[in-house]
Amino acid sequence: MEKFISYIKNSRSELGKVIFPTKEQVRNAFVSVFIVVTIISLFLALIDVIMSFVIKGIL
What distance in Å separates the CA atoms of residue 41 and residue 35, rounded to the nearest whole number? Predict the structure, then answer.
């Protein structure tokens, strides 16, 4: 039981050291990820359309 209590105390101590992101940091990260995913999606869609035309031309 001592180990469990020690574990809980150490966990609380470590949680006190955690620096959680601010709303602004979360929003900036979300916008950055959204933009990158959108750009990659558009790029892959363009490649898909180009490859479709190439395959249709060959067949």
Answer: 10
Main-chain dihedrals φ then ψ at residue 18, nearest 5 degrees: -70, 135
pLDDT in tens, the chain (59 residues): 899 999 999 999 999 999 999 999 999 999 999 999 999 999 999 999 999 999 998 88
Indicate yes or no: pTM above 0.85: no
Break the chain into its structural domains and give their ranges: 21-59
Separation between Cα atoms, residue 41 and residue 33, nearest integer Å? 12
Contacts of 38 (CB under 8 A, 6+ apart): none
Distances (CA, A) of 58 to 1, 11, 49, 52, 54: 72, 63, 14, 10, 6
